[in-house]
Amino acid sequence: TPIEKMTTETAQQEIAHLQTQLINYGVAYYENDEPLVEDHIYDALYARLVALESVFPQFMTPDSPTQNVGGADTKSDLAKVTHPAPMLSLGDVFSLAELEEWDVRTTKSLGFQSAYNLELKIDGLAVALTYEQGKLVQASTRGNGVVGEDVTRNVKTIKSVPQTLTEPLTIEVRGEIYMPKKSFAKLNLQREADGLEPFANPRNAAAGSLRQLDVGITKSRELSAFVYYTAEPEVLGATTQSGALARFASLGLPTNHQNRVIEKMADIADYISEYTAKRDELAYGIDGVVVKVNQLDLQIDLGNTVKIPRWAIAYKFPPEEALTVVRDIEWTV
Ligand code: NAD
Questions:
Q1: Which pTM does this prediction carry?
Q2: Number of structural domains in the chain
Q3: Are residues 8 and 119 in the same domain?
Q4: Per the domain annotation, does 72 fall within a domain?
Q5: Of the residues 41, 43, 176, 291, which should be mutated to test ligand 1's pocket, given the most ligand atoms within 8 Å of the CB?
């Protein structure tokens, strides 16, 4: 039955069922780092819930997964950190047609066509890094977006995250912690040899390795990072997303260099096909492309919903086979 033709009662039942199911999948994924289903299955159920809730908004409860970032809560033994500003998720789309629709909406809100910065969507977990006078003093996970977990000691074991910036700035920056594919494959071979359950994917391996009370475990896991955001761009003197990335790099922070500024959404097609082809060669997992309004003052004008920024959207690649083999090729960084 098309959603519009469903009875209120059937819709209510399906919505309640999907909410519970997705909350349970979320707990397994975000809190235990052990997903129960593959991402594309989660994504399809999530899209169905979004569609149902948009036709029957009376059943969209505040605890619905569509209204909350990450898992229900952070339950691990790690200390909790309240973020100075919430750490959000991203809206996602699965086709060029949906990207076009997002572009039309954005252009309408702004009143003109904005330039976009395209970035790879790194398959890891979000962290916030706080530097005081250029020194790394705190690192935290996204958690439920409002409260995350303190992983300062863990992050300090990651070689690519500088303990000291090249300038004595006081700033919170955010980015992605990931496990390079090679390290992931090696780790899973070792786990299998040790009779342990292998990690489902590099994202879960990264999260499971970072969120450890025993910092020695994190240290043995070869994690890496890319920084892509700050809520305080004025500290950097940056006015664009692409400019902020360049400033992060000049501070010694690890950044991904595959970003590209485009003047109109149609130009994204080349970037997507290029990285769909290059995806296997990359040293790290990506699950899509993130489109961001490049001018930072326009990002502020567009603002955020409770869960996602209106100035960015993630285009997700179609599902890929699991990566389990160490491949003897040159990785591109
Ligand atoms: P998301 O991971 O799809 O997108 C938001 C995140 O993208 C950000 O928080 C950030 O960490 C990351 N990101 C990577 N590169 C980025 C870049 N260049 N710029 C900005 N952000 C970047 O959203 P989510 O809400 O964390 O989780 C939803 C995802 O998790 C879906 O893909 C879903 O399939 C998966 N999930 C799976 C299960 C499961 O059971 N398999 C359960 C829950 C969630």
A1: 0.92
A2: 2
A3: no
A4: no
A5: 176
